[in-house]
Amino acid sequence: MTEQKSSNDGRRPELGVAMVGHAFMGAVHSQAWRSVARFFDVPYTPRMVVLGGRDAERAARAAERMGWEASSTDWRELVERKDVDLIDICTPGDSHAEIAIAALEAGKHVLCEKPLANTVEEAERMVAAAERARERGVYSMVAFNYRRVPALVLAKRLVDEGRLGELRHVRATYLQDWLADAEAPMTWRLRKEQAGSGALGDIGAHIIDAAQFVTGQTITGVSGLTETFVRQRPSDDGPEAVTVDDCAVFMARFSAGAVGSFEATRYALGRKNAMRLELNGSKGSLAFDFESMNELWFHDGEEPAETGGFRRIVVTEPDHPYLEAWWPPGHVLGYEHTFTHEIADLLTAIGTGKRVEPSFADGLRVQHVLEAVEQSAKNGSMYRQV
Ligand code: SOE
């Protein structure tokens, strides 16, 4: 449990944070650690103690740029530090299990980027460690940040209130195009041993978790296919084989009867970060596109046809989720705000002892779906129970 420390603003104790990894996720998590206590009434003031990275000079530069007090090249040292209470894991998936389990066993809270792990086996070990740690008041969360998009929290609220009636269709796509150029160089995200899978685990994981979160239903079976369009790419040592999927397309059954269609790709030329979700129910429909993340489209099937149709809700009112902490109506939020929201909820959970989601168990549930899609794809899209 985090011992009370002198706070730098006198009002609340500090929580020492160490972050491992300083690429895109490290940068956006750093923005969240810097801003969370200035916009949300959280029980701790985060102290950005140390940033971990593999290369000493690059880690030192990143620490300076992102606002960390120090840097280190040994994550094991961070896990043992007495002035660190929480480990934030922003590394490729092949190190999530080792770092998270060591941190939890050292009594540190853990925030781990998605997907939770590269395999179900690793995720199961992480869940076991998280459950043991939870009994000692040590908390953990997996960073499916799209659960903290105000429009998707509003969507979940409308589903939970029954405004869509019985859900029939879930249509989820995550469309990017950063690999559409066959000459784009090799990256860790294209190596199975580092990333676990390609578009499926990287961005497919997001729409699997978001669909389960908004609908409140879990995926119980899938039938899917994957494809790798560009099978080798330039690397420092010459052409290197791509060992993961470039896209994944699958159908799904949900636990309360809805049927789903999912697509995750890095080749949707012209689509930059189009994470989209549409739900059709017996009484209404919802549609969301992250590229217009402050808007939710709602069709109220109970509205007379004369004035019916999808209407655009601009999700920036003070009583919309999280918005009270930010700007006046119409002054929209961005991608980085969702990370501040998730860290605010994690700090609140640590301070109040309330359960926080998505838990590592939620991350394991996603891992099971990912594995089922890969197994289905390997067996001629044969239907696989999750
Ligand atoms: C992939 O390019 C990626 O960075 C994902 O890894 C993130 O989780 C997503 O939020 C944005 O796209």
Sum up the structure in keywords:
about 375 residues; single chain; nine-stranded mixed sheet; six-stranded parallel sheet; globular; alpha/beta; binds alpha-L-sorbopyranose; Rossmann fold; Dihydrodipicolinate Reductase, domain 2
Description:
By secondary structure, this protein is of the alpha/beta class. The two termini are about 35 Å apart. The strands form three sheets. A nine-stranded mixed beta sheet has the order 16-15-14-13-7-12-11-8-17. The protein is built from ten helices and 17 strands. It folds into two domains: about 15-145, 3-Layer(aba) Sandwich (Rossmann fold); about 145-385, Dihydrodipicolinate Reductase, domain 2, CATH 3.30.360.10. The longest helix has 19 residues, at about 360-380. Bound molecules: alpha-L-sorbopyranose. Alpha-L-sorbopyranose binds near residues 176 and 203.
List the helices and strands and how they pair.
Layout: E1 14-20, H1 24-39, E2 45-52, H2 56-66, E3 70-72, H3 75-80, E4 86-89, H4 96-105, E5 109-113, H5 120-134, E6 140-143, H6 150-160, E7 167-175, H7 192-195, H8 199-215, E8 219-227, E9 232-233, E10 240-241, E11 247-254, E12 259-265, E13 274-281, E14 284-289, E15 295-300, E16 310-314, H9 335-352, H10 360-378, E17 384-385
Parallel strand pairs: 1-2, 1-4, 2-3, 4-5, 5-6, 7-12
Antiparallel strand pairs: 7-13, 8-11, 8-17, 9-10, 11-12, 13-14, 14-15, 15-16
Helix pairs in contact: 1-9, 4-5, 5-10, 6-8, 8-10
